[in-house]
């Protein structure tokens, strides 16, 4: 199938409401439960929220496959149902990888495994990327587009757990979270989990598009002044949020408790807490993870300091990759407190 055909998205009847960028989030200090209730789950929709008419919605599956398919929601539901507990984290500003927006939630998603659906239509061996399309369109900051398209390396799909998700926390998806169907890519930044999914296509090259090959690609320093390279915003780097204490909280210095959530594409091995703005670090306790969930960390200790200080938390994953203290999508979280 030609690339020209691949670039033309099929679209169900839909409208945008609102038709401007839609963001919703709770303060991190309110994220006190392991599973984030759906109403508290953050929402990020670049162009606004698409409202889909289920009656004419289909999931088109085409590109490098033996048999094109047009699946109804019932067809998708007829595949084995998989549940995945997973953190979903926004990658932050699509053109600025130096800011951590601390925008994350943890939920139980259910749906069909994308790898099983692709096997059912016969995937061509040349496939290296799976493209995913949605009909939302409009303007976002200074950019505009007629639809949303992302791509995933086939290796991630083959690992399993990439869902065509129709449920979150035991209920059908809400419109803001992608009704009737969304992609859920555990371990990858939220931008890849395409909401209002209407088409997936198998291809042997990356999907050209505003959100795939233009925005959401981080510069990587080139060693010897060669051609600048860019890396797609895919796997989630080690990250963490401090749920407690809150900004400006007064804490007794002899009994300091710091807790929150930590996660990465792979499991987090250690979390360190600093009570003196990064001069010294102590280990926190870290719970194990369930599938791709976030992990709770907790630190109980004391400080010789009294007065204003900054609490910082940094996580390290099982590969030894540690959160940086500045200028990154996963910059360590800092909270200013007063020790009394
Ligand atoms: N179709 C479509 N899918 C999308 C987006 C979008 O704007 N349009 N935003 C992405 C981004 S940047 C994030 S962080 C997640 C947020 O998912 P949520 O709103 O369900 O939390 O959806 C992703 N999927
Ligand atoms: Mo995002």
Automatic annotation (TrEMBL):
Residue ranges of every copy of the Moybdenum cofactor oxidoreductase dimerisation domain listed in the record: 233-330
The Gene Ontology terms for molecular function here are: heme binding; molybdenum ion binding; molybdopterin cofactor binding; sulfite oxidase activity
Q: Name one GO biological process term.
A: sulfur compound metabolic process
Domain Oxidoreductase molybdopterin-binding: start-end pairs: 51-209
Q: Which Pfam families match?
A: Mo-co_dimer, Oxidored_molyb
- Write down the required cofactor(s): Mo-molybdopterin
Going by the UniProt record, its keywords in alphabetical order are: Metal-binding, Molybdenum, Oxidoreductase
UniProt-listed SUPFAM superfamilies:
E set domains, Oxidoreductase molybdopterin-binding domain
For this entry, the protein name equals: Molybdenum-dependent oxidoreductase-like protein
Q: What organism, scientifically named, is this protein from? A: Antricoccus suffuscus
PANTHER family named among the record's database cross-references: SULFITE OXIDASE, MITOCHONDRIAL, SULFITE REDUCTASE
């Amino acid at each position: 199938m030609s690339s020209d055909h691949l670039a033309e998205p099929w679209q169900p009847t839909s409208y945008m409401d609102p038709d401007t960028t839609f963001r919703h989030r709770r303060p991190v200090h309110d994220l006190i439960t392991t599973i984030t209730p759906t109403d508290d789950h953050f929402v990020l929709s670049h162009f606004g929220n698409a409202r889909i008419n289920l009656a004419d919605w289909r999931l088109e599956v085409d590109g490098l496959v033996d048999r094109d398919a047009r699946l109804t929601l019932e067809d998708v539901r007829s595949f084995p149902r998989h549940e995945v507990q997973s953190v979903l984290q926004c990658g932050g500003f699509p053109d600025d990888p130096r800011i951590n927006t601390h925008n994350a939630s943890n939920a139980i998603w259910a749906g069909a495994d994308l790898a099983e659906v692709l096997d059912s239509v016969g995937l061509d061996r040349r496939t290296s990327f799976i493209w995913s399309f949605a009909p939302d369109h409009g303007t976002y900051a200074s950019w505009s587009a007629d639809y949303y398209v992302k791509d995933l390396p086939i290796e991630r799909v083959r690992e399993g757990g990439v869902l065509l998700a129709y449920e979150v926390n035991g209920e059908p998806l809400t419109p803001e979270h992608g009704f009737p169907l969304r992609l859920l890519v555990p371990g990858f930044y939220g931008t890849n989990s395409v909401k209002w999914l209407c088409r997936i296509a198998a291809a042997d090259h990356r999907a050209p598009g505003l959100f795939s090959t233009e925005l959401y690609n981080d510069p990587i320093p080139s060693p010897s002044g060669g051609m600048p390279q860019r890396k797609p915003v895919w796997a989630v780097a080690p990250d963490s949020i401090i749920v407690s204490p809150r900004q400006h909280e007064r804490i007794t210095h002899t009994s300091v408790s710091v807790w929150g959530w930590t996660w990465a594409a792979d499991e987090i091995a250690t979390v360190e807490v600093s009570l003196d703005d990064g001069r010294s670090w102590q280990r926190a306790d870290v719970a194990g993870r369930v599938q791709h969930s976030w992990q709770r960390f907790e630190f109980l200790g004391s400080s010789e300091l009294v007065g204003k200080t900054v609490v910082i938390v940094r996580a390290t994953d099982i590969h030894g990759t540690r959160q940086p203290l500045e200028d990154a999508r996963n910059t360590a979280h800092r909270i200013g407190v007063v020790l009394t």
